[in-house]
Amino acid sequence: MKKKVFVFFPDGVGLRNFAFTDFKKIGEDMGFDITYWNNTIFSLKDNLGFKEVKIEDHSAHPLLSIYSRARKRAELNVSRDKFKDKVYPTYKFPFNYKGLKNSIKSIYTQWLIGLYSSEKGVIKLRAKINKLERSTSKYKYCKAQLQEHKPDLVFCTTQRATQSISALLAAQDLGIPTVAFVYSWDNVPKAMQVVETDYYFVWSDLMKQQVLQYYPFVKENQVFVTGTPQFEPHYDTSLKQTREAFFAQYDLDINKRYICYSGDDETTSPLDQFYLEDLANAVRSLNNKGENLGIIYRKCPVDFTPRYDKVIETNKDIIKVLDPIWQQVGSQWNQILPTIEDFKMLYNVCEHSEFVTNVCSSTVFDFVAHSKPCIYYNYEQPQLKKGIRDIGQNYKYVHFRSMPSLDAAVFCTDKNDLESLVKQILDGKLSNVTTCKKWYEIVVGKTPTEASKNIWNTIDSIIK
User: Fold this and answer.
1) One GO MF term, please (predicted)?
2) pLDDT score of 390 more than 90
């Protein structure tokens, strides 16, 4: 008899890894009965023909957001004190005191933080959150769905969504094994483990060590290194277009060599447009000296600000905009969802660009999968003023400490050096690829093409 697995989407961030890759096909070929337990507004049945059970009750306890924020800040305080490291407070977002309601919420949150900023306190906070969520109608609703469909295991596609808490509690209370996939390379040190499950699947040995380091209540035999399906499409050569076909499809100049500028979200890089402008100026200068270069600008999929418009318009002879092929199905950032077509676009942007440049983005790994270099900007813009976040703090975050050495990326620390760095990379005199591949292995794991298979094999061993 086939083992029934619920692949649980609390929000849309897991679609890219677990709906649009070969993850489902690999699982079915291994004999699993797969149902998508869907809490999003994206219909997997209508759009992809997948078997799904929709969660229509999206209720959460009114205090959940307050307790979750308190939990995160309390965990960061514990890490700050435990590891004697000032980086952890930099992960905190400021409190909102606009209006009476926001002020009351912020004051109450601060009171909870003061009360629970210890390892025992965090465990009590988590228990309180679980108690709140067990009292919701969504908990009862999800429990009834599980009782009806009787899955052998629930695989949650991200560990960081509060919308998943009540559903996973319902599964655990029915004795159904639960697994959470740790979604992103920077999530563990940032106190983004919202859920407590029976097992955790992580990208690499590094991430496993971090889960055990930051969450003492998790035991070693609960954490499995599987890799992530995120990078598997970069090894699918069926996605590859010829240079001529790709350039024709997106109206690129076949005679130009293109540099990809990968945009950031406004929180990470609030002055990102000025780094694009700096690159455009460097490219223009090099073109005046005999080069024939262009820029492919690929924005952050969840950035809808007009902040780049002026730079793009001024440099439209150099910059070609190739927007990610994502679909907006709601107003929240996690309701802007990738499409299968975007895999092909990203593959070919990586394949046919000379290199990528950005502020601290994980696209460094997308491009190194194609043996392409990366320039990271790490200098202040003159537009920086009080109240605007300096991008320099990004490189101090814990996940950047995984670099085997500083030459894992080409760092541009002075605007005046940018043109020279670009020229050296184009001439083959400068590259971070060799060291970056070591970094890629540290972060992504040793088998980037085997992640989906590893996940299903591990699920199989857990069920058995």
Assistant:
1) transferase activity
2) no
